[in-house]
Structures are given as C-alpha cells and as structure tokens.
C-alpha cells in the first residue's frame, strides 16, 4: 500500500470518536497513557490519523473498560501486545482473571435481579388486591 492509499484510508480523531463511542478527549488520554498498540500517525500539520487496526483495538479497549477492567490492567495488556509474540500466556492470564471478575459481577447482578423481581411481584400482587397501603409503611 502506498502512503497515499494509507492516508486515504486513515481516519481523523473525530471519525474514530464516532466509530468507538469515545470522546476526542478520551482518545487523547488513551494515547498519552500508552493504551494503544501502535503510535498514532500524524499529518505534516500534526493532526492525528488512525488506521482501521487502531479502531479495532480501541473497540476492544472500550469493551474491556465497560466491563470494569482497571486502567492499569488495560495498560499492561497493551504493553504485552506491543511487545509481540512470546507473552501470550501472560495475556491469557490477564484476560482470564478479568473474565472471572466479570462472571462474579454478573452472578451478583443476577442475584440482585432475583430480589427485585420478587419484590415487584409482591407489590403487583398487593396492588392488584387493593392491599398495598401498608407495604413498607414506617408508620404502621
């Protein structure tokens, strides 16, 4: 691919923000914190230009952060990927530990949902029977 072709396929920071759901500020922060695998390319005028691979990586980062991965772990993961082959087992351990934390959060949320569903049923039953006046009434 020629430089011209690469430039034609590159994306501005605004386009990347739109595709990833990250703000322009967040994209600059990710770059400063070393969360990207490759350095962000710049135009001769200093404007950031991203590749489709940058966008793919950022979409993974978004999901890892949305699922609660600490910034330090994400930074470490990016560093491992940048280093290249030879550390796949460490990457796997990091991702598996995060998956286990996500699984625990999902289980806790499912337990919360069960309690809420039960309570919704109690209220619905009492309201349908016209007996809702005393539910959790602190003066009763």
UniProtKB/TrEMBL annotation:
The entry's protein name is: MerR family transcriptional regulator
- Record organism: Streptomyces pyxinae
Keyword Endoplasmic reticulum applies: no
Where the record annotates domain HTH merR-type, the positions are 10-80
Pfam families tied to this protein: MerR_1
The reply on keyword Translocase is: no
UniProt keyword terms in alphabetical order: DNA-binding
């Amino acid at each position: 691919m020629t430089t011209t072709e690469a430039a034609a396929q590159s994306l501005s920071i605004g386009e990347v923000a739109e595709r990833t759901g990250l703000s322009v500020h967040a994209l600059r922060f990710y770059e400063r914190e070393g969360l990207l695998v490759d350095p962000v390319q710049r135009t001769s005028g200093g404007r950031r230009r991203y590749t489709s691979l940058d966008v793919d990586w950022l979409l993974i980062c978004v999901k890892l952060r949305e699922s609660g991965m600490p910034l330090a772990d994400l930074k470490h993961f990016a560093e491992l990927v940048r280093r290249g082959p030879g550390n796949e087992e460490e990457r796997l351990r990091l991702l598996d530990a995060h998956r286990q934390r996500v699984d625990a959060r999902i289980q806790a949320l499912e337990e919360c949902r069960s309690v809420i569903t039960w309570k919704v049923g109690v209220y619905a039953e009492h309201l349908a029977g016209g007996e809702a006046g005393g539910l959790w009434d602190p003066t009763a």
